[in-house]
Design goal:
This protein has about 475 residues and is of the alpha/beta class. It folds into two domains: about 5-230, NAD(P)-binding Rossmann-like Domain (Rossmann fold); about 250-470, NAD(P)-binding Rossmann-like Domain (Rossmann fold), CATH 3.40.50. It has helices at about 10-30, 40-50, 60-65, 65-80, 110-120, 185-210, 215-220, 265-275, 290-295, 310-320, 355-360, 400-405, 415-430, and strands spanning about 55, 85-90, 125, 140, 155-160, 165-170, 230, 250-260, 280-285, 320-325, 345-350, 365-375, 375-385, 445-450, 460. The protein has 13 helices and 15 strands. About 55% of the residues are buried. The longest helix is centred in the middle third of the chain and has 27 residues, at about 185-210. An eight-stranded mixed β-sheet has the order 10-9-8-11-12-13-14-15, sandwiched between helices. A seven-stranded mixed β-sheet has the order 3-2-1-4-5-6-7. The structure holds zinc ion. Zinc ion (ZN) binds near residues 393, 466, 469, 470 and 471.
Length: about 475
């Protein structure tokens, strides 16, 4: 047993309740259950322990770096979202970058199993035996062709990455894996597929109550995504669209300031880290300690990190290519604040609108911001050179109200913040690579992570500068 597998010093029941608290709030409040009919947290928690999930990978994908990155990220998310996961993984040596380097297993299946157990020590995680029998209720398959096993569960969703393109769905047309140096599409496809598995769980809960015909709004929210494709370059959703140019062997981000070591920062740093070619130095600003609900969606954190300061924990996992020094304080009180004009990039993922406004007023050269609320994931880009675009403060008019609302525990799910953080990482890469700079986001992108396939599931550039914003008043603008 590696040191990361040591169980945390809390009882199983206390751990499980804390761990799933925010996701159960999500399950009760984000899908549109008829008024007064949402299941209780107790019902949902019991149902979660009756919902075994299978994660499998095709033989071609388990050999490739992109396939392994997609698989390991899917395992990471599923181990946080579900207590029972069976892994069906052909023997292969791990060739991808280890997102958590303290887990030492040389094989893909060993790494995935140790990772899952290190995330949730009380989970029931195992490798599929030689009989190949499992009673899974939902399957996530990395890749699309050449399934090893005939007897799959009643629901199956595929996840595939092709360079900048993410492909997810229950009925995807077959496409070969494509080896490239860019796993971002694969990581995003894993997050959307994990969301589809969670929807399958919620459909299972709803079907016990309503039978086959779900109430109309709930039916829309939980309908499986048939075939969804998203280019992280220009956000087109064309299933047969281009995969985009490959990445250069080295990408230098210069001096960065990461504001918050929260769920989205974990996901963004994860995305940048596993590319194995992204270099940066700078600071991460975060005052808080890691708790159980955080662990449920912070993709670089393990159970042994509970109770630690989030900033230093993230800085440690970002090594060796991303060298961050942790400032264990809020942004407003941090010394890094006064050096913000010297950074090349401010990565903002802070769940605290007044901090976002403070960052914007300090005028960093480039802000890439990520946020999530309910089913929505947002990413926006704010450049000093682009004064015609809305600033971060334009988005945060009601910051004081939002701050009060944030005192309530938020309803959130690992897959949503994972998508927001990975979109943020994509924008960071685009800004730093000359060949893809033309594709950088002008203003804001919003994604309905429950139904990205709907007509308005992915929208761009809805925001314009707000007339009464600080950035639009000439006298105050430095
Ligand atoms: Zn503004």
């Amino acid at each position: 047993m590696s040191p990361d597998l040591a169980p945390p010093s809390v009882t199983e029941s206390a751990f499980v309740r804390g761990f799933h608290d925010r996701s159960l709030r999500y399950a009760r409040t984000v899908p549109r259950w008829p008024a007064g009919e949402a299941p209780t947290g107790e019902e949902l928690l019991a149902a979660l322990f009756r919902f075994p999930v299978l994660l499998s990978v095709t033989c071609a994908d388990v050999e490739s770096v992109v396939g392994q990155d997609t698989l390991v990220f899917a395992a990471n998310l599923l181990a946080r979202m579900f207590p029972i996961v069976v892994f069906d993984i052909p023997e292969a040596a791990l060739v991808a970058v280890r997102p958590i380097s303290s887990i030492a297993s040389p094989s893909v299946s060993g790494y995935v199993l140790d990772l899952a157990r290190s995330i949730c020590p009380f989970g029931d995680f195992r490798l599929l035996g030689s009989t190949g029998e499992t009673a899974s209720l939902a399957d996530l398959v990395v890749g699309q062709g050449g399934n090893r096993r005939q007897s799959m569960g009643p629901f199956r969703v595929h996840a595939t990455g092709r360079g900048w393109r993410a492909l997810t769905g229950v009925g995807l047309p077959y496409r070969n894996v494509q080896e490239s140096g860019n796993s971002l599409g694969g990581l995003v496809s894993a997050a959307f597929a994990a969301m589809e598995v969670y929807k399958a769980f919620l459909r299972n809960v709803a079907a016990r109550r309503y039978g086959k015909r779900l109430p109309p709004n709930l039916a829309v929210d939980l309908e499986p995504v048939a075939a969804f494709s998203l280019s992280l370059l220009d956000y087109d959703r064309d299933l047969t669209g281009s995969d985009g140019p490959d990445l250069p062997p080295r990408i230098d981000l210069g001096r960065v300031l990461v504001i918050s070591a929260g769920a989205m920062a974990n996901s963004a740093i994860y995305g940048l880290r596993v590319l194995g070619r992204v270099f940066a130095s700078g600071h991460v600003v975060e005052p808080k300690l890691l708790d159980g609900p955080d662990l449920n969606r912070y993709v670089l954190m393990l159970a042994t990190d509970l109770g630690k300061l989030k900033g230093p924990a993230l800085a440690e996992r970002a090594l060796p290519s991303l060298r961050l020094e942790a400032a264990n304080t809020s942004y407003q009180e941090s010394a890094t604040r006064w050096r913000v004009s010297s950074v090349d990039l401010a990565l903002v993922g802070v769940d605290h609108p007044p901090s976002r406004i403070a960052v914007q007023r300090d005028n960093p050269r480039l802000i890439v911001n990520a946020a999530s609320e309910g089913r929505m994931a947002y990413v926006s880009r704010h450049s000093l050179k682009d004064s015609g675009s809305p600033c971060l403060e334009c988005f945060n008019e009601y910051a004081q109200e939002a701050e009060r609302a944030a005192a309530e525990p938020i309803a959130t799910l690992a897959s949503t913040s994972a998508i927001a953080g990975l979109l943020q990482a994509s924008e960071v890469i685009k800004a730093a690579v000359p060949l893809s700079r033309a594709y950088r986001l002008r203003t804001q992108l919003e994604v309905n992570t429950l139904r990205p396939d709907l007509q308005y599931g992915v929208r761009m550039g809805l925001m314009v500068p707000r007339a009464n914003c600080h950035c639009q008043s000439g006298s105050e603008r430095a």
